[in-house]
Amino acid sequence: MAAALTFATFGALVLVGLGSGACSPEILIASSDSGGAGTTGGSAVSGTAGVGGNGGTVGSEPSEAGQAGEAAAPEAPRLLADSVADFALVQGEHGWYYGYDDGTSASYLPMTRISVITTYTPESGDVWECWANDSAHWTQIFQLGAHGNGTDTSPPSVPVLERAVRRWVSSYEGDVKISGEAAKIDVAPMGSNGVDARVVVDGVELYSAPISGEDAAGLSYELTAHVNIGSTVDFVLDPRDGDDHHDLSRFTGVIARRFHAIVARRAHSGSAASWLRPAPWRPRPCPSPAATARRSNLLRRPGGPSESREHAPA
Questions:
Q1: Tell me, what CATH number does 104's domain have?
Q2: In this structure, are residues 115 and 146 in contact, taking their beta carbons and an 8 Å threshold?
Q3: Contact status, residue 35 vs residue 54, Cβ threshold 8 Å
Q4: Which residue in 56, 149, 173, 276 has the most C-beta neighbors within 10 A?
Q5: 263-275 b/e with 16+ CB inside 10 Å = b?
Q6: Which domain holds residue 270?
Q7: pTM of the entire structure?
Q8: How many domains would you assign to the chain?
């Protein structure tokens, strides 16, 4: 019995299969889809929608995902805030505010004075502009970090606890990833007993880590949280045990929308969208042994279809 080739074209995708009674899986000849294409029963890939199977594909917009199948594609990342890149000497710019508290988030107050870092001079001789409380306290926040004021301090400061607080106010609702680094900048030998770096979301402390007085390498951190529009994310630098000597430290924070999968589902059969969309192409299933036997008997039956036909019925 002769076999005939059948061709099916779907955009730039060309499939070839065996005609007649063949039920072998089709062979992918070529595809110009840069994002990839799904084959029968294929896994999810991004790009222009290809041939849907029991797994289907996800294209530039949700499409028919095979036969009642599902497919997932990652959502594009989105950076919400970066404490270093967003730093400004204007309160509220990029959603950032610079202030201090006395040990609790409820006591937060914004700083009102712009100054330069006075507690430390880098080897480069650079002058670091910063936010400051007033001339009677060491509390300062600059692009890379901060310095708090403690109850154990040095002149001209007066002994009072002021934790340096870099605050971001959310304009986004959803799950976020918060990450960054914390390390000492001023590592004068025997000069500091260390600091505590804290991350506080809506008044609830979610992260805390001690940084020793001479730890210039520091650490990196990462945590997840849920925020609402108007939520506050505070990066708090706390002088350990109230001792603020040589406490200038690096403390950065990056806030990004957390990844979630976008799932494309087959439209309900009764919806308007399902009437407008063409039905997805599906391969013809292989006949069961019983169906094959019945067709064989039909071909041999007197008066039945001629066995000399080139194309047997499917």
A1: 2.60.120
A2: no
A3: no
A4: 56
A5: ebebbeeeeeeee
A6: 5-76+262-300
A7: 0.61
A8: 2
